[in-house]
Every structure is written in structure tokens, then in C-alpha cells.
Amino acid sequence: MSQVLITRDRSCAALVVAVAMVTLLVAAPVLPAQRTAQAVSSTATLATIPPRAIRRDVPITNSIRRALAAGTRDSTGRPGRNYWQLRADYAIDVSLDPVTSRLAGKARITVHNSSPDQLREIGLRLDPNHFLGNAPHAAPWVPAEVTDGMVISRLTIDGKPVNLASNAAPAGDGGSGARAIVAAQQNAANAPTGEAVLRNGRSTAASIRLGTPIAAGAHAVLDIEWSHKLPGGPGTGHRMVQRWADTLYQPTQWFPRVAVYDDLRGWDNELYVGPSEFYNNFGTFDVNIDVPAGWIVSGTGVLQNPEQVLTAAARERLTKVTQSDAVTTIVGPEDIGPGKATAIGNANGRLVWRFHADTVNDFAWATAKKYVWQATRATIPGRGAIPVHLLFLPGRANLFAQAGELSRHALEFYSTLWFPYQFPQLTLQDGPSSGMEYPMVINSNQGAADHETGHQWWPMVVSNNETWYGWMDEGFNQYMNILSDADAIAKAPVFDGLGQSYGRTSGAEGEPPMMWNANYAGPSFYGFTTYQKTPLMLSALGGIVGDSAVQRAHREWAQAWMFKHPSPWDYMFFMNKALGRDLGWFWNSWLFTTESVDGRLVRVKTQGIRTAVTVAQDGNMPSPIVLDVQFAAKGPSIRLMRNAVMTDSTTARVTWPVDVWFDGRRSFTADLVFGGRKIARITLDPARRFPDRNPADNQWPAAAAAPPAR
Fold first, then answer.
1. Which of 163, 440, 487, 584 has its CA 20 to 30 A from that of 427?
2. In this model, does residue 372 exceed pLDDT 50?
């Protein structure tokens, strides 16, 4: 998803400045010597700041501890020898009635119990219930309109009926309606043992209490029939509107989905409250979509019956799409109605579009009475050319003029950066949800094309729990968007300054840690914690090990977890091993706290050829000490210290490892011995990678204060 504040346009790439990335060398500190005073001291007094206790391990919760003991997760960060995950295969028939804006569907869902457990219930995601008047919503997400939610008319498990009382609409409104819902829940809970019962049927997180458990290694078949209205606008927040009037529909979270059952928490029973996104099983989808003839349909998967729904001219144009990078118009703005936009249709004036998708974790689609359909290609390394489809309303063509080019670049760039794009096509769908992602589908125009295409890597292949750990989805995407933007204009990516900038946020009472469940992050910090903080964290990590090393390790992690469900611990453990570092202190500070470094230069003293630089860290997050030492243009030759590199002819970058802080001290004296060349300037954290509330005290001599205003 791309929020309003962070929706990205390729014009943002013009802000990227080319800089050289310098890998920091880590060495043991040089012992201090006697000094004579020559320079500056800070206004703060070290004696007023207590020693700090630095936690150097990664906190382990009960869920990950159990998974490690069971062998489903591993301390290497790779899937454990006993790793498993459920699979859910869907066969769905759905029909759209534009007169009522209502979907009616029936699905056969095969649940494969790959777990070692006997399943006594099945979790269900009934997200259309988000539009019920009494559903909880996270501010400022406001649904477009109140509907009757997901109305389930039939549900069986292996042919046996399920008690649906909890899905019934309450007889009254307000307090009486709420009491009726509570009564229905209690009745469901008290249903006779052996009867399958739908629980919380008016919630987005429902479940089926099974009459007969599903044995480990076995499967069960759910047959379900339902209907719901697609909400119109206006609404506030993504996914709160799913249609424009009665001529364009963008169904998302539109069918009953089997929840994830995993080795960490069992059934995922988190509510859908608006901002936080999804956590789904992989499976095969066969979806038949019944719409009026003349309406174009696009969606996840590959169209299986083009000869039945497309005109001969459209089919012929599609054959040319992967032959060049040119944009081909499949259905133009003048092609409207049955026989022009589509095939004629059946006796009822309708067409059924059939789509198939293998190993995907969701299915989204769109349809409109007057879609323009264009297509181009992307050439995926090692896989060849795939079509990229663009569907939009004629009056919005300007918003899609660069969409094909941007999507092509994103697909090709991220395929090289992480792993090849795994799906047979990509579709951009115009509509009210302009910034949302699904397998093979992005509801986006060119403004967020790069960002939303990036989601095809996570969570569509590397499928994390977005509700709990949105930073592993949106945050990773924001980081790689920086790389893509820079590549698009043939510039070096800029990560300098990002890590330091977190110092301006750290300490805010409303900020949750990144490991906080994103459902409860709060309206003020959801965007920052979920989207914006991860690039700051990875900027800091790049300041320690180098940006290229971060990306190489991240690539290896992604490839190890393709089509699986990694946790944050899997990421932390994997990165530690891949980078050859014990980074527990780093992950603890960035993910489990909201601390900062707050480094400063306390004093500089020179005696002979030795200069002693006292550095303080006032925050509770530690970081390496990195100093840029700029020498006078002339003087004795510069003798390089073993923990230093020259960045130009008169500047040395010197590094002391984070270990110097592990004894609890808050100040460290770094000795500089470079020979007799005079030192003109010293800068702490020159690449600005570590969080700092006041970077102004990071230079010696201190910058001159601005003259008072007159």
C-alpha cells in the first residue's frame, strides 16, 4: 500500500544526489595518551548522565522460542528442518450486479493441513464485515458507506452443514442490535458438541468450530455461498471505497479467506481495522467472474478463455505485446460495449471471464464499463518477456502515460536486485483504491507504480505477517524504492543522512517500537513506523557494514524465504549470519525500542603528534564511532592509522567499533596519531547514519553561531 504522504512519483528521483559510499573499516581502538588542551568542550556535563546498560541479545518471545524448540525455525534464520505451512486452494464463481452494486459468489476451498496438529477449528477472514456499522475501525480510516457486510447463505465442511446463526443480521439497531449479536455469539458457543458452528460471523475475524477435527496431513473442503455490496465513496483511507458509481468496480478482500495457521501463534485472529494489511496462505486460484458483456475484466492470474470474452482484434493485438517495449492498445477509448470492447455475450447479455493463478496468496480484480486497455512488456532476467497490462478510464489517460515504463523498470530492476519476478504477468488497475497491491495486480496509476510493483516481492512471494510486522513489507519496499529511483536516473542511491534523521523523532511518547502490532500503532505513527523507519534503520546498518553488504544479505534472506512466511527473528538471525556480525544490540535498539544515539564531540586536545578526541553518546542506542579527520593542505606526510582509510588526499575516516560502549561507559576518548600534519577539522558521524537529536555538536571547531537578528 502507498499512503498519501508517501505515494511516490518518479519525479521524486530528481532529488537523489550522487555520492560515493565508503565501507567503514572496524578495528580495535588505540590506547589513549596524555594530552594538552587545545579545543572545545560541550555544554552538557557527562557526570549528569548515568551509565547505560546495553542489551546485546535479541529479545525472544514465547512464540519464537517454541518454534525454535520444534525445529520449524532455526537460529541461522533459514526455515527449520520441520518448517510447515498450510495451503488453501480456491475455486470461485462470482457474479456482479451493477444495478445493486452487489457481488454474489460461491467458493470451494480446500484446506490442506500440513501442520503436525489436529485442527479443531478453521479461521476465516470475512473482511466485507469491516463495512458494518458496528465494526471497529482504526482512525482515521472511515469506510465509504455502511453495508450489510458479508451475508453467508450456505456453508458446509466436507458436505456437512455449518450452523450460521452468528452471521445473521441483528433484528434491531444500537443497543438492542448489539445485544442480539452477543446473544447469537453465546448461542453459537453453546451449540452441541459435534455440530460445526460459525463463530463471530459478523466480524472480520470469524472461525468455524469443527464437528470433526482435521487430522495432521489431511484436508477438508469448505463450500460457501455469500453476497455483499461493494461500498461506494467517498471514504477516508485505502480500501475504504471499492467502486465509482455503478460503472467501475475494484473488488478487494471480497471473498471468504481461510486465515493463516502457523507455527508461531496458531490461527491468525487479528481483526481487520483499516490501515494494517494482510497475512494469507498460498494456494491455487481458479476464479470465474460473471459481468455484463462489454465490461473489461482484469485480475490476478492468467485469462483462460480469451476466445470467449475478447474480440478477434483484441486477441490479435495481445499476441504482439511481448515483442517490443512499445505500448499496444488492446481496447481503445472508442471501443465501447459488446462486440467492440468484448465479445457479444450470452443470451443474458453477460460474459464469464476465467482466471487461473498458481501459488499466490490472494486474488483481486477490477471491471469497468469503459476501460481502456493497453499493454507493454517487461523482460525478466532468466525468465524472458512478460506482459504488463494497463487498464484505466479514458479521462485518466494522463495518469497512466508513464505507468508502463515505470512498471517495466521496477520489474526488471527488482528482479536483478532480489530474485526474478515470479509471476506470468502484471496488471495496473485504475479505480478508487489508487495505491494497493495484490499478486500480479496493483491498483495504481504511475504515481505509485514503482512502490506497488515492489510489493510483488514482499508480501506476494516473501509473505510476512503484515498486520503484526508491517515494516517487513512496507518498510523494505520503501528502502528498495530509493535504489530504484536512483537507478532510473543513473545516479548512486543516497542513504547518508537517513539514519541520523531518526534522532528528530526518537523520544516521542506516541511512537511505538517497530515490533509493536501495527493494528495498534496509532494514527500519528502508523505511517512512520510501518513505512518510513525501516530505511532509516537500514541506513544505519549500512553505516556499519556497508550498503552493498546489507543488500547482498537481504537478497540471500529473500531467496531463502520465497513462498514462505518469515518472522522478524528469521530476518535478524539470517542477517547476523550473512553479515558475519553479532548485531543483537542493533536489532534490539532499532526494533524493540525507540532510543537514539545522540552522539557529540565533548573535547579535542592535542599534544605533539597525538590528538585526543572525547566522544559522548547521550542516548541509550550505541553505535560505532566514526570520525572524519580533515588535515591542513600542507605539512608533514600523513601516516595512516590501521583503523582509518583516506577518503581524499587530506581526509581520513577513522572508525572504532561499537564494542567500546559495551562496558556501560558514555564517553570514549579516541586517540588520533597521523604524524605531524595539523588537523583542521573533525566531524563525528560524517555520513550521518546514526540517530542524533542535535547534529550541530558533531563538529570541531564548532560552527560559528549566527549573529543575532537586528
1. 487
2. yes
